[in-house]
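User: Please run a holo structure prediction.
Assistant: Happy to. Please share the sequence and the ligand.
User: Here you go; the ligand is adenosine-5'-diphosphate.
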Amino acid sequence: MKVFVIANQKGGVGKTTTTINLGASLAKAGKRVLLIDLDPQANLTSGVGFSQQFSKDSWQNTDTAPYKSIYDVLIEKLPISSAFVTTSIENMLLVPSHLSLAGAEIEMVNMLSRETLLKNAIKDFKEDVDYVLIDCPPSLGLLTINALCAADELVIPIQCEYFALEGLGQLLHTTKLIKTVNPQLNIGGVVLTMFDSRTKLSESVVNDVKEFFKDTMFQTIVPRNVRLSEAPSHGKTIVEYDPNSTGGIAYASLAHEFIKRF
Ligand SMILES: Nc1ncnc2c1ncn2[C@@H]1O[C@H](COP(=O)(O)OP(=O)(O)O)[C@@H](O)[C@H]1O
Ligand SMILES: [Mg+2]
């Protein structure tokens, strides 16, 4: 079992889209995958259609979730396997999130070993899984730090946009600091997302990132593709929604590269 953290403190760069669709494509390729939604916004949880099982009221209630979530695992110390739910993709499990996780960062501050709550939760878990993918919130707060402490490999999605590399120094610095607590943490790879072949800007971002990250960059570049943005509103991964779209093909290719690398 190898644990991956999908992080970039910038919002909207494709962390959740990559976690869902890389996860689904890995599962499709025969791997056993566990997704952990560590973002209080719970976009991953709704993106795979899980929240659709609940009424809007109970889903949006900020106090308690109508199901067991990552909040219960971190704060109430529930065994992580008790929060597993199946998804419409065979071989892909999910630990859902809920808005109540927003308060967790504050609750965690006074907890013992607050940086390693997730690491300890995963350590206990012995089910047969090949890859654990952790989706992070857009910040370098305690939730992301927990994910970095729990992981073997950091995967950084970078949007082919202006200021793409901005803030990455901070992420890399944090990663360096985390290595003192979690020495096995590696930079597993950088994924470029939302590439637009019509713009010179996308090209120049690719070149900048190539120069900066060299071999850690995945060859697969995820194009901007409307099917990728539509899929979560149907509670579907691209594997179910439109596997032959340019986005679907890109994530399948990323999964193959991923399997080769790890
Ligand atoms: N390759 C892509 N093509 C088109 N839209 C995308 C692509 N990747 C992500 N999006 C859309 O961009 C927005 C931000 O992506 P998301 O994965 O939620 O980013 P993050 O988790 O980093 O905040 C979402 O609306 C998502 O549907
Ligand atoms: Mg997200």
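The first helix runs from residue 15 to 28.
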